[in-house]
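User: Is it possible to get a 3D structure for a protein together with its bound compound? The compound here is cobalamin. I've pasted both below.
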Amino acid sequence: MPTAIEYFKFLPKTNCGECGHPTCLAFAMQLANQKASLDECPYVDEEAKRTLQESNAPPVKGVTVGAGDGSLRMGEETVLYRHERRFVNPTAYAVAIPDILPEAELRELARSYLDMSFERVGMVFDLDMFAVFNASGDAERLRAAAESLVGMCSKPLMLIGAGAEDLRPAAEAIRESRPLLYAADEDNVSPMAALAAELGLPLALRDGTLDGMAGLVEAARKEGAEDLVLDLGSDSMKHILESNTVARKVSLRRSFKGLGYPLMNLVGSGEEGMMMAMLSTMKYGSLVVFDSLEPQQALPLMTLRQNIYTDPQVPIQVKEDLYPVNGPGEDSPLLFTTNFSLTYFTVRADIEKSRIPVWLQVVDTEGLSVLTAYAANKFGHEHVAAALEASSALERTSGPVVTPGMVAKMSGKLEEALGRKVLVGPMESGSLPKFLKNLGV
Amino acid sequence: MAKVPLPKEKWSGAITSTAMGDGGVRLGGAKGMPFLSFEDPDLPLPLLAGEVVDDLEDFPSIVLDFFGEDAEDPASWAQRWRGMGADLVCLRLLSTDPDRRDSSPEEAAAVAKSVADATGMPLIVYGCGLPEKDAAVMEAVSGALAGHRSILAYVEEDSYKKISSAAMANKHAVLAFSNLDINLAKQMNILLSDFGVQREDIVMDPLMAPLGMGLEYSYSVNERITLAALNGDRMLQVPMVCDASQAWQVRDCAEDEEGMGDPVERSAWWEFGTALAALLSGADMLIVRGPYAMQLIRGAIEDLGGGA
Ligand code: B12
Ligand code: SF4
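Assistant: Yes, that's possible. Here is the predicted structure of the complex:
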């Protein structure tokens, strides 16, 4: 953001008043506060406008890949450490699909990845993109593969080919779906960037050195390509950590302008791939591309992404309410828990597993887990009693009230407050199926 | 060609460095943010402690299957860790729990000694988590490990005197536990210093919440602690220990569920993810439970800290 002084430098300082402000300085101050627009002064020249716009640009440019439902936003980060604000646009994960596969196999492979999805804490985790790879060397095959994938899902694509002519037919055919073109390097940057500019598509640049990358960015922009994603190489974890950190840091500090774009890493597969992917997720990667990915790898990785991109100031919560699970009736047991979504969904899944009908009262603990809430005095017998009162839970069922095992201490006082039998449940909700069966309800 | 500047920080502080065991192993000593060789050209590598317990009840079968009969004997188990590249042994004397075998402080200390003798590695020793029993156990352990500098775990705000005294008596370090909060971590270190524990003898555990169970808090708390230490806050310049084995508490880590893939490999990634987050946010030492995770973490440290 330019300051008032920086704006003032570019104004004619004639105080003519045509902008509706008494002086150029007053106008500059309004500009700095974003309460005026530069267009209101008829005397600012184009050159000055461009310079001011550049210093107005976000430190890391936002780039959209894909279109419609599945479109992804990358970049736009403003901090190096997430406690300063938070990270905004989560790392996207892509898997490679080679265009040499016969159509049916290609679709089957894509289908298996689309089916790889997990539900965790009430959220769905899945893959974000396909990277169609011109393994055949035949531009028409790449086009056919890309069209086939666009036809079967709304996931954005990345098109990987050796040069502009290899990518052109596919890029033109699925232009509407806004694929990411991969990649321009020092040998082909002009034609690649020209293609991206002509079709208005995002473009990946690849160079293993920071200086080389800065040169590529300049060259690509000269051709009119603006939506860039930078691949600084993935030779080792050390390389990813240091390159991504430097690129992000100089951009945020504005000590260097040319690297303020989303970053990406091609990590391959297997152990090394997973290690790099986890690293890239924590250290500034906007896109990670795999050769292949297995469910036992994807779940921990996507959980990590969810953790890193969540806002620690605001725990994910569910609403305080009485929730029926497995169709409870007038004498079903009445369990209660906190409104921290990790706690709620864990407990709920365990009750569902038991198939035993239960009323589940969620108590508003401001999103804290059982012990954390108890330690913070937000989950005492009085809070539980108030929540049960508000939901008229005791009128819905004559069944026993069951406390989480970790807050067994409150059971006596709660029994007094409610005038209803209170049982102490297991410590871990994983033991609930057994516990509920033994209740014999 | 454009020249990208190296954004090197001028840190005014560094993490203390302290010798463990018989002196061959050093803990701490970082002078920059984790693994940035342009901030700290000869960065010290974080240490890895392999976890050993002396009571196998409720211990994950994936790990027990790997160690087989060696898991029955802490010294043999610890030797296996040494073969796998661990720097320390994390010994949990769970059998001292009155609800388990209620083994005596002397028995427990003998186990600790057997591990130290068999491996020559420094130990980080935990009791069963009950403050009174732990105090007695640590007193015995401190004597048994005299001359073999280890870490006694752990002390908290409302019970630290006995274990700290036990540590000071034989020049061991003490693990200062605090709960996911930079101010509490600092407060704990101040308490110990005021009590007479040297700064070189304090190691802190700000609670590494595992992947999928609060990692988002720990990652930032650790980063803030590391930044504050490098920016000169002396009371936070002590090595940080993160317990990656907590990953096994998370249901999805090792549960065998349809659609979630192989639990053996998944548990390794679960612990690895927890460990890598700890390393990148400033851990100087990790406690590791899974053998496959140990291999992965060792590989990552070698890569990240590599001279290449
Ligand atoms: C992440 C975390 C935090 C996060 C908050 C996360 C959140 N949204 O709750 C933060 C950093 C904010 C935090 C803060 C604090 N925390 Co905290 N925190 C944790 C941590 C690492 C994980 C908690 C978690 O997510 N658990 C997972 C959920 C799913 O567990 P759960 O809610 O208990 O649910 C399980 C069971 O209770 C049971 N269950 C749940 N509901 C029901 C219902 C029924 C009917 C049944 C039968 C069973 C059941 O099944 C569930 C699955 O097993 C734990 C340590 C640990 N590893 O457990 C400490 C821990 C809970 N925290 C603790 C403390 C002391 C605090 C603080 C008071 C510290 C401080 N002095 O500031 C503060 C208080 C909060 C405040 N003032 O705002 C202590 C509690 C000590 C105690 N025994 O009372 C713990 C145990 C750490 C420790 N070892 O000291 N904490
Ligand atoms: S219109 Fe332009 S020149 Fe005139 S006062 Fe406003 S800013 Fe100054």
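The longest strand of chain B covers residues 47-53. Chain B touches chain A through 46 residues (CB under 8 Å).
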